[in-house]
Amino acid sequence: MVTTTFHDASFSSSSPSSSYSLSFFSILSFKEPPLFQSLTLPSHNNVYICWTLTRSNWTVEPLSHKSKAKVVMFLGRLGSNTRQCGDILVNGRRQALAFGTSAYVTQDDTLMMTLTVREAVYYSAQLQLPDSMPLSEKRERAEMTIREMGLQDAMNTRIGGWGHKGLSGGQKRRVSICIEILTRPKLLFLDEPTSGLDSAASYHVMNRIVGLAQQDGRTVVASIHQPSSEVFELFHNLCLLSAGKTVYFGPASAASQFFSSNGFPCPSRRNPSDHYLRTINKDFDTDVEQGFNGQTTTTDEVINVLAQSYKSSETCQQVQRRVAEICKREGAPLEKKGSQASFLTQSFVLTRRSFVNMYRDLGYYWLRLAIYISLCLCVGTIYFDIGSSFGSIQARGSMLMFVAAFLTFMAIGGFPSFVEDMKIFTRERLNGHYGVGAFVLGNSFSSIPYLLLTSLIPGAIAYYLVGLQKGAEHFVYFGLVLFVCMMLVESLMMIVASVVPDFLMGIITGAGIQGVMMLNGGFFRLPDDLPKPFWKYPMYYIAFHKYANQGFYKNEFEGLTFPNNLAGGPATITGEEILRNTWQVEMGYSKWVDLAILFGMVVLYRFMFWAIIKTAEKVKPIIRAFLATPPKQKAQIMETPSST
């Protein structure tokens, strides 16, 4: 048995809103009485939520959509604008839930839309299940989980999204549940599993969830929005909260008698859940008609009457005594249910999954490849057969600068697709599927073939149409610099995505950063002419365009000779003189050093992305703890026994 205790705990959100009215429903009968003690919320607009659970399936239905979101956020995972006070104990100790013990399915179905149901669940199984389990068993676990959620007929159907019709909303929600129950967690949090579904689909989804709760004694905590009468009939126990007060907690079948005995009977042919919520909902502060004498009373008065009636009941007293007894116990440390796959396995699986996603997502690389080919055809025809005249010196420099700056600049076109990957990574990371390092390596290795493709094919078109310096070594170097620059821009956009998750703001930010680097990269303003305090030191050496331009120039001009049209000069001018005097290139090292510096910047940027994610994970809890303030009133004590 695992007991989770929220002792004098409170959670507050800084988001401005009205006071919330909340109700809790629990599904399935209990093997022992549920443990719940009176809940008191502050009177100001910030919300403090606490509750208890037992070995059962719980659902949370809000009177307010915003209040529901905060309840599940507090219960499943704290948000960045949430403050926490008090003690949260597992088996009476301060310890984290072990991997495989709990899982959280968010309201938004954050799934990789290019994968089929079978692929999505199987990849997740390889990430979460230990290496000691054979692949055949992992595949069988994945397919069995899919069948448990009734998705066997959609195994080979792509999940789908904005560009491709795939699964329905209810099926996507069940896929999300499949992914999180692969490890057979003891505690599963579901945020609105019926959101956006009709009554029939809602019933089937909830019926599957009931089956999950019954199987293996699993505890499922779910929020549900406006349950139909069929869904409500699945509930065995019911808890109603409103304005921070416990209105009712007991068998769902006895709730109607409780309301009737206090003067608020449920009319015939009305959904009981609708009646209960309408009676205690104070969001609109409407008057409620009493059944005994037909008089009306305010919602506040109704809540007070029902709360006082529940407080004086024997059920409430029994629950309080049971909670106090369990709070005095201190259980054993929580045993780990299992281990994840190894780092190498996770990196390999993420690489393969990301490669498949990039191949099937037209907007990730294929559209960019088509645009690159079109642009390089334009460049090749504009600078066609550039020759070796004196005027070709400036033309070669301009053409190479366009390739180094503007072609690589367009690598930000894949930023929206990467933002979607980041959403999936955030969800899976918070649920402990894999680490940041495995994600960085998987994304890096999976993108290499596509970046090589988008650099070599358009690069060859531009290189040979223009007639740049002949020789396989020169073209290979040209293609490698273009490839590394594209990877470097993608690495830069990864850093931007970790700081600015919104894709529109991210594109603007990334474009601005690249614009600054491009401006002081040594072409628009020669290096010796840059103002030294800031633009020369350090910005000129930070901009990757410096090394890309110089590498391209050395690769192109070294070994060539051009006629000299300048009066009073020699008849010819060498490429080395052009590099030194015209482009002010640093000639103290070879072009391969520039390429190595660019590659080092790729590694540095990827490491910075990893460091930002890891730092944010460490710093956010510290900031939350620093901002936490003691509640003005004592909060709920919560107990969560869950059978193993």
TrEMBL record:
- Write out the GO cellular component annotations: membrane
TM region(s), chain numbering: 365-386, 398-419, 475-497, 503-526, 592-613
Q: Does the keyword Isomerase apply?
A: no
The superkingdom listed in its UniProt entry is: Eukaryota
Q: Which UniProt keywords apply?
A: Membrane, Transmembrane, Transmembrane helix, Transport
Q: What is the recorded membrane topology of this protein?
A: Multi-pass membrane protein
List the InterPro entries: ABC2_TM (IPR013525), ABC_transporter-like_ATP-bd (IPR003439), ABC_transporter-like_CS (IPR017871), ABCG_dom (IPR043926), P-loop_NTPase (IPR027417), Plant_ABCG (IPR052215)
Q: Where in the cell is it found?
A: Membrane
Q: Where is the ABC transporter domain?
A: 17-268
Single GO MF descriptor: ATP binding
The text of the family note is:
Belongs to the ABC transporter superfamily. ABCG family. Eye pigment precursor importer (TC 3.A.1.204) subfamily.
Protein name per Swiss-Prot or TrEMBL: ABC transporter domain-containing protein
**What organism does the UniProt record list as the source?**
Nelumbo nucifera (Sacred lotus)
